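Exercise (ungraded).
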Amino acid sequence: MFGVVREISQVDRESFRLLVDSVKDYAIFMIDLNGYVMTWNDGAEEIKGYKASEIIGCHISIFYTPEEIKRNEPENNLKQTIIRGRFEDEGWRVRKDGSVFWANVIFTALKDISGELIGFAKVTRDITRRKRADEEINRLNNELKRQLEREKEHSELKSRFITLASHEFRTPLTAILSSASLITRYKEFDQDPMRQKHIDRIKTSVHYLTDVLDDFLSIEKLEDGKIEFNESVFNLHDLLQDTIEEMKGMLDTKRQQIDFSFEGPNEISQDKKIIKHIILNLLSNASKYSADEKKIRLGVFLNSQTAHISVSDEGIGIPAAAQAHLFSKFFRASNACSVHGTGLGLNIVKKYIEVLNGSISFSSQENIGSTFTVELPVSII
Amino acid sequence: MKNILVIEEDAFLRENLVELLELHQFKVIPAKDGKTGYELAKKKIPDIIVCDLMTPQSNGKLFLDLAGADLEIRLVPILLFSFNQSEPEIKSVFKNQHDECLKKPFSEKKLLSVLNKLSLH
């Protein structure tokens, strides 16, 4: 009876050995108590590159990367296996030729009939391709998320634009239409001032509509990173003087004045068009958000590295609660509702200033006024 | 001469409407928002009210809420600057059956024809 059992067991063991040996996709081998390789199958040779004759008797640390050896991973893996009976891990492993592969590793503690630990079985799979595929999926996923985010922003911008076009555009259009109607009614020679008033209104309304359109186009370009600067050397003092001239119409209606002071050399190497846009925007804000006859100050101080440009007004100011959001897209402060605007101006200004490697800051007190300070390098690159 | 209250936030348009309507023999009371509009309506009880609903700054909605609750003002025919009369939101704010809607931008001719229709009531 006893002999039969042993016979079956021997057959089993032999067929089991043959089975293990012929497995190609898995490295299956045994390790002694001290971590030395005892057996080696075809799969192990395939995956790790060692022949059985080369590797049997070597310590398993040969399969680990130097960093893992430094962290005592081989010993730790065996200790974990002793504690749990089975230990699974994933990580980089080293082939004979020094190349690495991403491995799924399962250690199993081997015990004899009495429960005494006699060694370890180790099964290793090369899952580099799965790992790379996972990474690729992750990368694509993130890319997709980013694109979706951008798409969302675009569609938000578009729906904002539609709302704006249907609400904010219709009022200036009605003003234009009614001014045109009125002009045709003022036929007498002495009614010229009336005609002129309505011609000016039409012009102002058209400018407003154009500005809003331009803002939407700029923001889309800025957000797509499509704005490039165009650096040239020019006279900053003259540019600012021209910009103030351009503001005249707007200032005259509110009987406001700009105090302009300039200190330092006149020339800088920057983007003329963008700077003009920035200053025009800040000055027109100063005018829009100030009462009639208030003073606006444009001060420039230039040294060898930086141009400090500040625009101060005596206007309605920015409520403390609104200050943190001031540069956000579509944001309008609670006290700004009576003034037309899209909430895009300062968002665009800030983005433009970043394109020019500059910075913008402000200080403001409600009902006292605001000061915006722009710092720009005297040359962009 | 009919008294007409005009609630429009945009300064250019408000002034243009005053000019235009005065040329057509209306006596115009301008108001820059719903709140001022209601106060003036209370004081002067106009024959017609024109109220902008298209720009949120006008706060025409506030005017309609206040006017709707006011027994005297709710009888005054009203012209709303708004998108579409059939919008449920607009329908619900109408006080009278003969109230009218006009979408910006509108011509002088269109505006007057609607106002003339309203002044018959």
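Further reading is listed at the end of the chapter. For now, observe: Chain B touches chain A at residues 9-10, 12-13, 16-17, 19-20, 23, 52, 54-57, 81, 83, 103-108 (CB under 8 Å). The first strand of chain B starts at residue 2 and ends at 7.
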